[in-house]
Amino acid sequence: MRILVFNAGSSSLKFGVFELDPGAPLNAARHVFKGSFDRFGADGCDMITGVTERSRARAPHRTLAAAIAAVPDVLATDGIGAPDAIAHRIAHGGTGFTAATELTPEALARIETLTPLAPLHNPANLEGVRVARDCWPDVPQWGVFDTAFHLTQPARATTYAVPPEWREAGLRRFGFHGTSHKYVARRAAEELGAELRDLRIISLHLGNGASACAINRGYSIDTSMGMTPLEGLVMGTRPGDLDPGVFGFLQRNLGLDIDTIEAALGAESGLKGLAGSSDMRDVEARAAEGDARAQEAINVYAYRARKYIGAYAAAMGGLDVLVFTGGIGENSPSMRRRICDGLEYMGLKLDHDRNLHVDLSDRAAPQIEAYGTRVQVLVTETAEQLMIAHEVASARAEARAAHRPIPVAVSARHVHLDAAAVEALFGKGYELTPDKPLRQPGNWAARERVTLAGPKGRLERVAILGPLRPQTQIEVSRTDSFLLGIDAPVRQSGDLHGTPHVRLIGPAGELDTDGLIIAARHIHMHPDDAARMEVADGDYVDVNLDHAERALTFAHVLVRVQPNAFTEMHIDTDEANAAGIGSATEGEIVPEMAVTALSPRTPA
After folding, report:
1. Could you give the number of structural domains in the chain?
2. What whole-number distance in Å separates Cα of residue 542 and Cα of residue 526?
3. 140 in a structural domain
4. pTM for the predicted model, two decimal places
5. Position 164 in a domain
6. Which of 44, 132, 446, 489 lies deepest, with the highest CB count within 10 Å?
7. Are residues 412 and 381 in the same domain?
8. Residues 482 and 561 in one domain
9. pLDDT digits over 169-204, tens only?
10. Half-sphere exposure (CA, 13 Å, Cβ side) for 14?
11. CA angle, 89 as apex, 2 and 166 as ends, to 5°?
């Protein structure tokens, strides 16, 4: 499948052509053409083409529309035929665009309404779509959204503590650079030969725009940019984190209106505001010559990034991998060193020579941590265009695939006990009494019950499921965790490292144990059904519940293929209530690109 990717900005156009198989890993794709038009002006623009050997020339195109209109001839000159689809990077998709989406008139109208959230980006993205549609009227246009990857973040990370009327109007944190963070996390997992779902990753995208992202076992759980791309790290021309009180201060003391302040925050702040230049190369050169403003800018930039690393490591309960990407992250050894210095306490330290000699050719992702340190540090080029092409190719393949119905069952709170827990709660030598068989072969509900006790409340008569496990595991809903007063993490079954403790109370004793989780939604699947649905163990899929009372889609559902399994998706009571499900129902499974696609699959 041949995909043409456009990244249209107000003053530049980047584009590329990829040939790829939707079912193949990312690194199997062929990047057959790469081009850009930059610095539009009265006398034309700069044009760069070539994937390896780069050709530079001056082109006559003075506007974005003229540049896009010239692309068919540019591709034809290189012998590249018409694409099967055109993919557009769209900065802001709000909460409604969760995946690659065909840009129908209805979709474009919905994107148009989001312009106030990204006034510098979405209008240029939409202009790119309109011009491309005129140039290729018979080729489907698709959009991939910077914000989509971050929609897995919990409400505690996306909610601003402001009046409810403001939140109801749409004020919340979204995050950007999602396509970049998604790619580098998968690339890091591939390089390390690890499962993405086993890693706690911080991705630092450091370019003219900059953001940090906490990626916990494949999911974005927090990111530094907020409702707009202004929040978070120091950037080329944007300030990052800023006290909102500055608006009132500047209005009262300098007489500036909101439009003037917003324009300065977007174009005159960040490195440019601190050092007079938005280019880190210039700032570092001047700092080496003794320029105090440049030195201060570098210190502020590095400190802000280092502070986010510490915060996100705390949010994830630890850190396994730090990844640098973006123009500064890829090319500045000194900035990487400044950011990492002082983080030895968390097991993160760079190797001097490895950091200085980074080779990123052929999509390399070299490791630069000191030998023997716990946290692995990688550098890699981001490949947003490749990621966009792959998402669109996968989405088109999925759209053509037949529906995949699957049963959906509600799993209420319950516990799995190990042998020591049974004896502690019911007495020495006690054996649980199987009462009712469950759908999963060999599993049953016991006649006995236990009580869960937390610092705030208790849950009585909680079911025990057998057979015994090697380690005690307690599964509750988010609402249950609030009743107990314990912040339980969302985890897959068996992933119990670092989970909080809860007290179990039985007729013969009490037991304080870890293992308290909110079970991540998952599908138990028989191998025959997995083959029929064209999914594999460890894949993540979306499940559409169009026939539920409140139709919705459950994203990132783990497929667990097991011999003799009864094929069934499990959700908890909170998720069932959100969909208006009172008992088991049926959904349609639509595979998305598996988060394990870049790394070897292992049993879940």
Report:
1. 3
2. 18
3. yes
4. 0.78
5. no
6. 132
7. no
8. yes
9. 989 999 999 999 999 999 999 999 999 999 999 999
10. 9
11. 150
